[in-house]
Amino acid sequence: MKSWQFATRAAAMSPSIIREILKVTEQPDIISFAGGLPSPDSFPIEAFSAAYEKVMREHPRSALQYAASEGYAPLREWVAQSLPWDVSPDQVLITTGSQQGLDLVGKVLIDEGSRVVVQTPSYLGALQAFSAYEPEIFSVPNDDQGVQLESLEREQLRYQARFIYLLSNFQNPTGMTLSLHRRQEIAKTCHALGLPIVEDNPYGELWFDAPPPPPVASFYPEQSIYLGSFSKVLAPGMRLGFAVVPPEVYPKMLQAKQAADLHSPSLNQRLAYEVLTQPGFLEAHLERIRALYKGQCQAMLAALQRHMPDGVSWNTPKGGMFLWLRLPAGLDSAAMLPLAVQQGVAYVPGAAFYDTQPDMRTMRLSFVTATPDEIDRGIALLAQTIEQQLAA
Ligand SMILES: Cc1ncc(COP(=O)(O)O)c(C=O)c1O
After folding, report:
1. How far is the CA of 386 from the centre of ligand 1 (A)?
2. pLDDT, tens digit, for every residue of 272-286?
3. Average pLDDT of 383-390?
């Protein structure tokens, strides 16, 4: 009997290492810093219940019907108005999570062998989405302010990439944020090089003390696709995000979306709109999430300070969900993971987020899913594991 014959693109797909790790860490006795799940305490459950009743009372038939592929018009208008630069609702495409935005970008802009620039390390889900379209990915390193401009210029002049994929705020995985100056410099450099930008910003609203600078796309809107998400602000189970797309690219993104899913769920779009526009809701809700995550981040920073041996370093994120830790020389976070899980704590080895030349000493720690008590215990277990490795 003839067996299935996979397309070359399917052969290029690989399982997400994070999802594989998550399977192991779902056991209840493990304190997991591995997942990137928002805290369920942040979900606006009552606001959703009220919105559901309202939508079912006022618009049940249209909420349950097929709808426009572009998205629910009032939600598109809301998105356009919420952004800090001049965006027309016609440029807004509602997507099934920003993950779909990444896939549509790949579908529309990448041919086999097309070059794409990414920061390194970068979001694994984007590498996964793009790789299905078989690009040649090349990475530019970050310094402490973000993408290194000289390597970007050098590499782009050599490789003529189709776009650069950028994470501007509280980056997944490193928690890092691009400075205002670097954003302006990136926009200027991309303009000079004729290099379009795909900016992914699902975490921008989750700042602790001060909002981050405006998106890179706001300094170069004509050649930027900007992706946003409702997952971290409302709830990921809604599977709603958006793309702001220049008029030249919009029709192609729309056609790609039509082929993928016709449109994002009408009911969820109406619910999101109702929740977002409940008077006074959003500001109070965001303040609550910011305070919750800031407290958890501070608990992790304090625990690291308390427990970690010399030679371990980490950054201090200004928002978001992740912190980036680096082990002392000679240690390898991927090799250490089984021992850490045995001790009762899990993380994602940094190597998962590099396309090439991983820094094996790094790891991503999420501070939002565990409680402050669990964070302290988990970090103590991690420190113990590191000490054992150093002594071995
Ligand atoms: C950087 C980044 N982009 C996109 C996504 C996808 O988010 P969603 O599809 O839930 O909007 C995530 C999810 O964790 C992410 O970290």
Report:
1. 30
2. 999 999 999 999 999
3. 96
